[in-house]
Design goal:
Chain B: One of its GO terms (cellular component) is plasma membrane. The complex is a heterodimer of chains A (321) and B (297). Chain A is α+β, with helices and mostly antiparallel strands and 321 residues long. Chain A has nine helices and 18 strands. In chain A, α2 packs across α3 and α2 runs parallel beside α4. The radius of gyration of chain A is 24 Å and the shape is elongated. Chain A starts with a strand and ends in a 6-residue tail after the last strand. Chain B is mostly helical. Chain B has one domain: MetI-like (MetI-like fold), CATH 1.10.3720.10. Helices cover 71% and strands 0% of the residues of chain B. The radius of gyration of chain B is 25 Å and the shape is globular. The chains are: A alpha+beta (321), B mainly alpha (297). Chains A and B meet through β6, α2, α3, α4 and α5 of A and α8 and α9 of B.
């Protein structure tokens, strides 16, 4: 159940957008497709929606083969990065669109649309045109419009990508809470690892048309399958030929066990965080302000560093990422 | 589904136009301003419009009613004249309607279709526009004349008139609809499709309402051009009274009548006034219609 894709491949001319993708997205879960731009994640989402035809492979939605179904028969809700509002229709009519073309009774439409407008906090904007709304409001309208037809799955393509940082963060928290209430199988595309880690139940890392790793947010962060996943999900640095997270580096002022000597070449403070560049090792360590003060760190100080025991590390690729 | 999603975060009630909306950018209050019209520019415009448009129009109207209402009525109810006026207006309405449909289809194919030779097609559209009208008439005669290479002679037929008028008005709707079509949000159409809309429903409910103002203005331009067209149709029409004689050629004929110049000129002006009125009525109708479309959304 949920969404199953098997052997999906897609080319645009010579460019391979997706190569032999096998994935399964659980019913009721909030799954993130995470990866850099141009990696194929949006193409995959559009293939699931039927807006793009795969060259190879199949798509199953709720156990039924949907590969050859037109988008309008798939019963998916799709939310676009740039809202895709029906600019000539009021907010109310936008949300009502899917129900109106299904020729539902007027009273039922009114009830349902008002319910949804309340859900997305736009009830007082029902008569406005989309152009009279802010970006965040337009995206909530688009979400209500997609939910109106009670889709089996909800697909969101970079839904907060066009919004400014603050609105983005608030809307993302709100989406998580909304999902906890509505429980529709949801897949959303993002290139923002923080967004994926914060909101989703499961993350699929997609790069260069391939699936790099699938797992729960913590699994991916703690046990990345390869250097790409590790560096895409958070900051990394190299120490002793290994990729480590800079916040997992222990810093000592005296030689300790297997710690290697290093010199602090630059000390940079960003709010609560202190970044110590370890010149000769080529890496850097991330400390809290308290730790840095306790160690009495200063530029030019000689220190000994090692990855904290039991933390994530994987062999660094020859070309540091 | 319950409707209580806890306390809405602050952003959910942010003011519209708060940074995220690309459409509503507050206009700068300072800097270079070209907004206001000074008294001088207004005066120049009024003078210019008067010289070019208002005074000549008033002169025609004055001439039309030279002999009072009865002379005017007599002029336009002469059987041949009345027939020509009816034909001209009917043809112009037909041209406007056909162009609204065909021009939209042509524009659609130009914008959405991908086919070899699209660039040439694109240029061909404007040829009728660029040709001197008499040349357009010759072009029509070459194909549909008495010695038609395809064996179809439309000389002296109303079909010939219609085809010629369609030829010269071809670019109007195409060129008004094309830019609007280019700017249509394809994702909105995809959104409609995922909401269950079929292609015809998407066209009718999403694309068409947004194209309508452009289609209407293209149709009005076609109407206006058709109602006054002379050079291109005069060759193919053969000016057969009660059959293919159009209003503009009646006017021309009246003005050629040197024997009783005063009366003829008054009659020509009367016919011109009817054409003028027809154009004015259409313009007003369209304006009302467009406002209604805009309001209903």
């Amino acid at each position: 159940m949920g969404i199953q894709v098997h052997g999906i491949g897609k080319r645009f001319g010579d460019f391979v957008a997706l190569e032999n993708i096998d994935l399964s997205m659980r019913t009721g879960a909030l799954t993130a497709l995470l990866g850099p731009s141009g990696g194929g994640k949006s193409t995959l989402l559009r293939i699931i929606a039927g807006l793009e035809k795969p060259d190879t492979g199949t798509v199953e939605i709720d156990g039924a083969d949907a590969t050859r179904l037109a988008p309008r028969h798939r019963n998916v809700g799709f939310v676009f990065q740039h809202y895709a509002a029906f600019t000539h229709l009021s907010v109310y009519r936008n949300v009502a669109f899917g129900l109106e073309i299904r020729k539902r009774p007027r009273a039922e439409i009114r009830k349902r649309v008002n319910e949804l407008l309340e859900l997305v906090h736009l009830e007082q904007f029902a008569d406005r045109l989309p152009a009279q709304l802010s970006g965040g409001q337009r995206q909530r309208m688009a979400l209500a419009r997609a939910l109106a037809v009670e889709p089996k799955v909800l697909l969101l393509d970079e839904p907060f990508g066009a919004l400014d940082a603050k609105v983005r963060k608030e809307l993302r928290d709100w989406l998580r809470r909304l999902h906890d209430e509505v429980h529709v199988t949801t897949v959303f595309v993002t290139h923002d690892q923080e967004e994926a880690l914060e909101v989703s139940d499961e993350i699929v890392v997609i790069n260069d048309g391939r699936v790099e790793q699938v797992g729960k947010p913590d699994e991916l962060y703690d046990r990345p399958a390869n250097p790409f996943v590790m560096s895409f999900l958070g900051p990394v640095t190299t120490l002793d030929g290994q990729l480590v997270r800079p916040h997992d580096i222990e810093v000592f002022t005296d030689p300790v066990g297997d710690a290697v000597p290093a010199k602090v070449t630059r000390l940079q403070r960003i709010g609560f965080e202190v970044r110590a560049e370890l010149g000769d090792t080529g890496g850097w360590a991330q400390l809290t302000r308290g730790q840095s003060e306790a160690l009495n760190l200063a530029e030019g100080a000689n220190v000994w560093v090692r990855p904290a025991p039991g933390t994530t590390r994987i062999p660094a690729p020859r070309q540091p990422t | 589904m319950t409707t209580d999603v806890h306390a809405p975060p602050a952003a959910l009630d942010e003011v519209p136009a708060g940074g995220a909306g690309p459409r509503r950018r507050p206009r700068a209050k300072t800097g270079l301003r070209l907004g206001g019209a000074s008294g001088t520019t207004l005066g120049v415009v009024v003078l210019w419009m008067s010289l070019l448009v208002l005074i000549p129009l008033a002169a025609v109207l004055g001439k039309a009613f030279d002999g009072g209402w009865s002379a005017f009525a007599d002029a336009i109810t002469q059987p041949a004249t009345a027939a020509a006026l009816r034909l001209t207006i009917t043809l112009s309405v037909a041209v406007a309607v056909i162009n609204a449909v065909m021009g939209t289809i042509v524009a659609w194919v130009l914008v959405r279709g991908r086919f070899p030779g699209a660039g040439i097609f694109e240029m061909v559209i404007d040829i009728p526009f660029a040709l001197p009208t008499i040349v357009a008439g010759l072009v029509m005669l070459a194909l549909y004349g008495g010695d038609s290479p395809i064996g179809v002679s439309l000389v002296g037929t109303r079909t010939g008139l219609l085809v010629t008028l369609l030829f010269v008005t071809l670019p109007f709707t195409v060129r008004t609809v094309q830019p609007v079509l280019l700017n249509l949000d394809r994702e909105a159409e995809e959104a409609a499709a995922s909401l269950g809309a079929s292609a015809p429903v998407i066209f009718r409910r999403i694309a068409l309402p947004q194209l309508m103002p452009a289609i209407i203005s293209g149709a009005v331009l076609s109407f206006a051009r058709a109602i006054g067209e002379y050079g291109s149709v005069v060759l193919i029409s053969s000016n057969l009274p009660f059959k293919t004689e159009i209003a503009s050629s009646v006017i021309y004929g009246k003005l050629q009548d040197a024997d009783n110049a005063a009366v003829s000129t008054q009659q020509a002006a009367a016919i011109a006034t009817v054409l003028l009125a027809a154009s004015a009525v259409v313009l007003v109708l369209i304006d009302v219609l467009q406002r209604r479309v805009a309001r209903r959304g």
